[in-house]
Design a protein that fits this description.
alpha+beta; 49% helix; 4 strands
Length: 171
């Protein structure tokens, strides 16, 4: 059986019949380019979002570590009002910080600050330890014998508290 010319023409051309050759060529060239543009845009968006979350993670870990070091004196001396003011200013100045808590070794909150409009999605916790200096100020026999100044190295001392920083990964 021989197919009718009208029937084979319908099967061969999925394009609308009123489109000319120029329109068809433009469509053949632009549809794949548009699809590539959409796929690349989506990939860059996802990649940028991952980078932003990683930056918040790094900043949260850095803030928690810094507070664990700089808050030692305020925690040991019991100056919670100064600690509270400092961490409140920090929360107000950084839009990614949802809350900060400083606790003593028993878990009692000594100082805390919280942003009202931010939800925490990442939590960072660091121990606060009293620094112990490896200096013997009463025994100078080794220093006098070697005519050298003793090293002012530090080591981790007793646990004096914990810092908890909660970060928001949303802008």
């Amino acid at each position: 059986p021989v197919a009718s010319p009208a029937r084979s023409a319908d099967m061969r051309t999925p394009w609308p019949s009123h489109w000319g050759i120029t329109t068809r060529l433009v469509m053949v060239a632009s549809v794949p380019a548009l699809l590539m543009f959409l796929v690349i845009t989506a990939a860059l968006y996802v990649s940028g979002q991952d980078e932003a979350i990683e930056a918040v993670r790094e900043r949260g870990a850095l803030i928690a570590s810094s507070l664990a070091q700089t808050g030692q004196y305020g925690l040991v001396s019991g100056n919670s009002a100064s600690l509270e003011r400092s961490i409140q200013r920090l929360v107000e100045s950084d839009p990614t910080i949802a809350s900060i808590q400083l606790r003593d070794p028993n878990g009692r909150v000594v100082a805390a600050a919280q942003a009202r409009d931010r939800q925490a999605s990442l939590t960072f916790e660091r121990e606060m330890r009293a620094d112990v200096f490896a200096l013997d100020l009463l025994d100078n026999s080794r220093a006098a014998a070697s005519r050298a100044v003793p090293d002012a190295t530090t080591s981790e001392g007793r646990l004096i508290g914990k810092v908890t920083v909660r970060m928001s990964s949303e802008p």
